[in-house]
Design goal:
The protein has 32 helices and 16 strands. With 800 residues, the chain is α/β, with parallel strands linked by helices. The strands form three sheets. It has an eight-stranded antiparallel beta sheet, with helices on one face. Strands 11-12-13-14-15-16 form a six-stranded parallel beta sheet, with no helix packed on it. The N terminus is likely disordered.
Length: 800
């Protein structure tokens, strides 16, 4: 082993015969032995690829004299323990002494055999090289086979890498690629690198030979297709696939080979951030499908195949991955606008290594070009869409919902129609006014300490501008239309809609996209689907993801940059939100402060939802300003539906005054099995202004009875034990019964979502949450926010 002449290179040997076990005529120096040829296909055993391990080593040189035969006999052999490492090119010892003083190159190994000795159960692997043999002795047959297959794999992959890095004839190269793929598929080794190593070799081959013909490209793709069935392609190979999709979108390779690859990516990929080229390949594949004759019909069938024929998609990663691909593709359509806005390097520049500030073009001027609007005639009325805030904020509404409703009715004003604006892609024409003085003045001052302007304010440079139209290049326009349509397809699946709504709730689109009339019009269908879904987890995502940030509700409301239907979608969103658990003062206060004008305009046009909203604002005493109240009343009286609902409101107010008139019992207990209708009928029978203690225990009342309970001004103790009173009712109670001191929710279906609303009831001193879905975190939060809480029952809950 000390002589390097033993390790002569044989890298140029043909590889097509490598699948056989080599030359069987190699002789050992001494000792009878028998060789066992190993066929992995019939064994059925599976092994992990070895990278290093401890093993016994012995070197036997081929004898030439009688004395050398004696010295190399089995009785005089010396075994050395070594910790061997299987590198990419050689077999190396951690202690380079003795037999392994010099690394054994894979290119010098002529043959690999399994040996089992006749006289002793020693498990050996024979490595033949010119002039001698290396014996590796393992502890058992499994380790011996593991070493054998690992060495065989390392040796063959080393030779394939050498041959394919220096191709001469491409017909021979194609045969070698097929042999390499077959070797990887039939290997008994189970390791990620077994399939990834051939893909990396072929990826390097394609990258270094970019002048191949299209036919050669397709032949190579077809040859490696079996490896891609259970493995993601490496980044360089993804780049090659992307190029093929762009140059030959109608090739059968796209349908027959790329389809299962993309399906596997969408089903199993966990993070496109770690492998962005997989996302880019998926994007290019979808665009290639869109180029076929059937166009979006093919894309629709592909999306349906990813969902599956049943009502529930069995693969949870498909939807997030599809949404990630769509968002990235839509972002790329506006990349020119975004890079010109902030002078940051584009993805193309980053790939080309242009990251220095002086390597990029100077920033283009950001300005909004639009026709000068005609000078409006002098008027004192403000448009409803402007929503001017009063100089002094109104005081908070009292817990008693009895309003003082005036009678007179001035005529509400109508909004002005601004001219549309056109933004060109050759020059960036969207201006983000950083001072934002007009909007700051309109909203009554800066919002907190956040120096970044609000999203909608950035887009609405002028209150008179409602429509922005960006002209994209033809290719970008096709990309936008394709992936916007995919988002529409995703929203049609009921099981995907909740997750889709949650993913889109933060509005993960560039500001330029939200200023693009075509894009917001395409996206309107998706938001409409959210607004029509009766599930709270879906339509609640129409609201902003956090306080101070705009959501789809603001974006598609009258005056928002995406509103193009005079508020029809806005009315649908309000209707579904009001029909859920948002019939609260907080929601009404938000509408009164920000969208009162649009609500009045839609009510004036006979929209029943908006008429109901205005009536609730009067009923809950949301509007403190007398003139605004008169204007609301005038709006209600201008339509038949509004007049009818206003008259019903007046009737309810008279009944409420009678109910709250002093008198009646101080304690009241409803019989078991009583319903919401029974409670309403009882409270309408007389005065209950003195009622302080009400027991509804073991009745059939639900959250709907909260509408009656909030009319009791003196109520201090409420027993809801073993009823169906839920979270929606708790939210309503928390806003109107601020004086409540004792509340029993034992064995009710309330959850953390409703119990958290109790944190505003500062007078609570006794709270029974026995056998509810209370969690420990919510319990700690309630204890911290309710200083007067002394008596608490949390038995049989998570907080117990």
């Amino acid at each position: 082993m000390h002589n390097n002449q033993f390790y002569q290179c044989e890298e140029n040997k043909p590889l097509l015969g490598e699948m056989s076990e080599g030359n069987n005529n190699t002789k050992l120096g001494a000792g009878p032995c028998k060789r066992t040829l190993h066929h992995c296909s019939s064994s059925g055993m599976r092994y992990k690829l070895l990278h290093e391990g401890d093993i016994q080593v012995c070197v036997v040189k081929h004898p030439r004299t009688f004395l050398s035969k004696i010295l190399t006999s089995k009785f005089l052999r010396r075994w050395e323990p070594h910790h061997l490492t299987l590198t990419d090119s050689s077999l190396t010892s951690a202690t380079p002494t003795g037999y392994m003083e010099t690394s054994l190159s894979y290119s010098s190994i002529e043959d690999l055999q399994l040996l089992s000795w006749d006289n002793a159960p020693k498990y050996c692997v024979q490595l033949s090289f010119p002039g001698g043999t290396v014996l590796l002795q393992a502890a058992n047959s499994y380790l011996r086979d593991q070493w054998f297959h690992s060495l065989q794999w390392k040796k063959k992959i080393y030779k394939y890498r050498k041959v394919l890095n220096n191709p001469s004839r491409w017909d021979v190269v194609l045969k070698e690629i097929r042999a390499l793929v077959d070797m990887a598929l039939t290997s008994p080794l189970q390791d990620e690198s077994i399939h990834q190593a051939p893909l990396h070799i072929i990826s390097t081959l394609l990258a270094e030979n970019s002048n191949l013909s299209t036919q050669d490209h397709e032949n190579i793709i077809v040859a490696i297709a079996p490896l891609l069935e259970n493995n993601h392609p490496p980044p360089d190979l993804c780049e090659f696939f992307c190029k093929h999709c762009r140059e030959r979108p109608r090739s059968m390779v796209v349908i027959e080979v790329f389809t299962p690859v993309v399906q596997r990516i969408l089903k199993h990929n966990m993070d496109f951030g770690k492998c962005p080229r997989l996302r880019l390949f998926t994007q290019e594949y979808i665009l290639a499908l869109n180029e076929l004759n059937a166009g979006m019909e093919v894309v629709k069938k592909f999306v349906h195949s990813m969902h599956g024929p049943t009502g529930q998609c069995p693969h949870p990663r498909v939807l997030p991955n599809l949404v990630a691909v769509c968002l990235a593709a839509i972002y790329s359509c506006y990349e020119e606008f975004i890079n010109s806005r902030d002078n940051s390097p584009s993805l193309k520049e980053i790939r080309n290594g242009c990251q220095q500030q002086n390597d990029r073009k100077p920033p283009m001027p950001l300005r909004l070009l639009r026709p000068e609007p005609p000078t409006p005639p002098p008027a004192t009325l403000l448009p409803l869409s402007a929503n001017p805030s009063p100089p002094q904020p109104p005081p908070p509404a009292p817990s008693n919902p009895t309003p003082s409703i005036p009678i007179s009715s001035p005529t509400p004003s109508l909004p002005l129609s601004p001219p549309p604006s056109v933004v060109n892609s050759s020059e960036i024409l969207v201006e983000l006014e950083r001072n934002n003085t007009a909007n700051t003045r309109r909203k009554g001052g800066p919002s907190g300490g956040d120096s970044e302007p609000n999203l909608i304010d950035c887009l609405l440079v002028s209150p008179a501008v409602n429509t922005l139209s960006i002209q994209l290049p033809a290719q970008a326009d096709r990309v936008l239309g394709c992936f916007a349509l995919i988002l529409k397809m995703l929203s049609d699946y009921d099981d995907w809609r909740p997750a889709l709504a949650s993913l889109l709730q933060p509005i993960p689109f560039p500001k330029e996209a939200l200023a693009h009339a075509k894009f917001t019009k395409e996206l309107k269908y998706v938001i409409q689907r959210f607004a029509e879904d009766p599930r709270q987890e879906v339509h609640s995502c129409l609201l902003s993801v956090r306080s101070g940030k705009d959501g789809w509700f603001q974006l598609y409301s009258p005056g928002g940059v995406a509103c193009d239907d005079d508020g029809e979608l806005f009315a649908s969103m309000v209707h579904i939100l009001m029909g859920s658990c948002y019939k609260t003062k907080k929601f009404l206060l938000s509408l009164a402060e920000n969208k009162l004008g649009p609500c009045m305009l839609l009510a004036l046009r006979g929209n029943q939802t908006m008429v109901e909203i205005l009536c609730l604002m009067l009923e809950y005493n949301i509007i403190e300003n007398k003139d605004t109240q008169l204007q609301i009343i005038s709006t209600l009286e201008s339509t038949q539906v509004g007049l009818r609902m206003y008259e019903q409101l007046c009737d309810r107010q008279r009944e409420l005054k009678e109910l709250q008139r002093k008198g009646g019992p101080t304690r009241l207990t409803l019989p078991s099995k009583s319903t919401d209708a029974d409670l309403a009928r009882l409270l309408s029978s007389g005065s209950f202004g003195n009622l302080e203690n009400l027991s509804l225990a073991f009745t059939n009342v639900t959250s709907a009875c909260a509408e009656q309970l909030i009319k009791l001004p003196s109520l201090k103790q409420l027993n809801l034990w073993s009823t169906q009173f839920g979270d929606a009712g708790l939210r309503l109670l928390s806003e109107h019964l601020a004086c409540l001191q004792v509340l029993n929710l034992c064995e009710t279906p309330v959850t953390d979502a409703g119990l958290l609303a109790l944190s505003s009831m500062k007078s609570l001193c006794s709270l029974n949450m026995n056998s509810t879905k209370l969690t420990a975190d919510t319990y700690e939060d309630l204890k911290a926010k309710l200083p007067n809480l002394k008596d608490v029952d949390v038995r049989y809950t998570e907080a117990w």
